[in-house]
Design goal:
- The protein is α/β, with parallel strands linked by helices and 434 residues long.
- Among the domains are: 250-296; 299-431, Glutaredoxin.
- It has 21 helices and 6 strands.
- The protein has a 6-stranded mixed beta sheet, sandwiched between helices.
- Helix 5 runs antiparallel to helix 6, helix 6 (94-108) packs antiparallel against helix 7 and helix 14 runs antiparallel to helix 15 (268-281).
- The longest helix is centred in the first third of the chain and has 25 residues, at 2-26.
- The chain is flat and about 65 Å long.
């Protein structure tokens, strides 16, 4: 009987542990399932939403990823009624609330402009400007020319510049995303300030343009797509060039701005405009462009040159452009690019003006062969198992594409994200084929 009591006791403990594990397992969602559960509870105004939010808030990376999704892919799914319900719940995690507060203020703003303008100014003083996308929502509240909006725009610029200045590790990938975001937002804020100003000072447009140029060729520019869909049309580069000409600025400064813009956005329209500007200011387009390229591109070091010559170019035309694509069979975004890589490889076989070589990082020759056969791909692949070559070129995200001008021993990195890299390739070949 005595032993029976112990057995019952042990069984009860194990049962309790089992139930606890079972309950815990029930809320161990994948991010996709977590989002689905969150929105289902939100739709039904189910107060169990508190438990879901508590689970999200348990882990700093979980809350970061989840709220990032809310600010990007699911922004339109959070209407004002849904946000009203969330903010009516008691004892919610403060980090979660702070991450959504600027979005909530922006959506409530039309109800009481003065009240919510003041609330937004208070959020600009907080530390989580990036996670909460505070500056995005604050800028969306500065549409008019009234005094309150002008003051808010000025405070946005100050807060963004201060936060950018104080970033702790600007060279780490996560912080590089933030650098790109802050510069983009500062550019937008300056352009709004220009439209709000009475004298339309060209120096404000200068600040907007140069902050945009700083970020446009950042590797993480594509990451800004969800922000740019709100603001892309707000920055009018043609207006900037027109105002520069009207201000009778030095021709070298004007052409430098146009060259920089075309280098970073080499569309056929921009290239055509660049050639037209050169007809007005200079007769020798090609030599000026080559000089500009020589100053802008990154020098290949001796070890990088040896690797390219020995492993990639071999008997290929040494004067041609070379696109190097760093990818992996394990990388979904890389795989999505490969049909286009194959297309341009096929074109390169007859064009002779460029070639494409790829580097499969953190893969084995066997894995790559099986993958290439299954996908029916035949472009050149160098397998970088260790990965020494990725380290040699300081590649730490995938895919990464380098466009090398082997004739002058220099290269640049094509911006990452949802950027149409093929347009960059076509643009640079159109500008300087040799």
């Amino acid at each position: 009987m005595k032993y029976f009591k112990y057995i019952v006791y042990i069984i009860s403990i194990l049962s309790a542990i089992s139930c606890g594990l079972s309950e815990s397992k029930d809320i161990e969602y994948s991010n996709k399932k977590l989002l689905s559960t969150f929105f289902n509870s939100l739709k039904d105004h189910d107060k169990k939403l508190i438990d879901i939010i508590d689970y999200i808030a348990e882990d700093k990376y979980r809350i970061l990823n989840f709220t990032n999704d809310l600010h990007t892919k699911y922004l339109d799914s959070l209407d004002i009624n849904s946000l009203d319900f969330i903010f009516s719940l008691k004892d919610l995690d403060h980090n979660f609330i702070e991450a959504l507060e600027p979005m909530y203020i922006w959506k409530k703003f039309p109800e009481d402009v003065s009240k919510y303008s003041e609330m937004m100014r208070e959020t600009l003083e907080k530390d989580n400007l990036y996670q909460a996308r505070t500056i995005r929502y604050a800028l969306l509240m500065t549409e008019n020319n009234n005094i309150a909006h002008k003051v808010l725009t000025k405070e946005i610029i100050h807060s963004a510049k201060q936060k950018l200045k104080n970033l702790e590790h600007p060279n780490r990938i996560y912080f590089q995303y933030q650098v790109a975001w802050y510069k983009f937002m500062i550019s937008q804020a300056y352009f709004i300030q220009y439209k709000q100003s009475n004298d339309r000072n060209i120096q404000i447009l200068d600040s907007a343009f140069h902050n945009r140029m700083d970020v446009i060729n950042e590797r993480y520019y594509g990451f800004l797509n969800y922000d740019s869909m709100y603001f892309e049309d707000m920055f009018d580069v043609e207006l900037y060039f027109e105002k520069l000409k009207e201000s009778k600025v030095d021709s070298n400064k004007f052409m430098s701005a146009v060259l920089d813009f075309t280098f970073k956005k080499p569309t056929s329209e921009n290239i055509s405009n660049l050639r037209n500007y050169f007809r007005d200011y200079s007769s020798d387009f090609q030599s000026e462009w080559n000089k500009f390229i020589d100053e802008k591109l990154i020098n290949l070091n001796a070890e990088q040159k040896v690797f390219i010559d020995r492993e990639l170019l071999q008997s290929s035309n040494q004067d041609q452009w070379l696109l190097i694509d760093f990818w992996g069979t394990w990388c979904k975004p890389c795989i999505e690019d490969l049909p286009m890589i194959q297309k341009y490889h096929n074109i390169s076989l007859s064009e002779q003006s460029f070639s494409i070589k790829t580097i499969a990082s953190r893969d084995t020759p066997e894995q790559v062969k099986v993958f290439m056969d299954r996908k029916e791909l035949n472009f050149p692949v160098f397998v970088d198992t260790n990965p020494e070559v990725s380290d040699l070129f300081s590649v730490n995200s995938f895919p990464t594409k380098l466009l090398v001008n082997n004739k002058i021993g220099k290269y640049f990195i094509i911006p990452d994200g949802n950027i149409n890299w093929s347009k960059y390739l076509e643009g640079y070949l159109l500008l300087s084929l040799k």
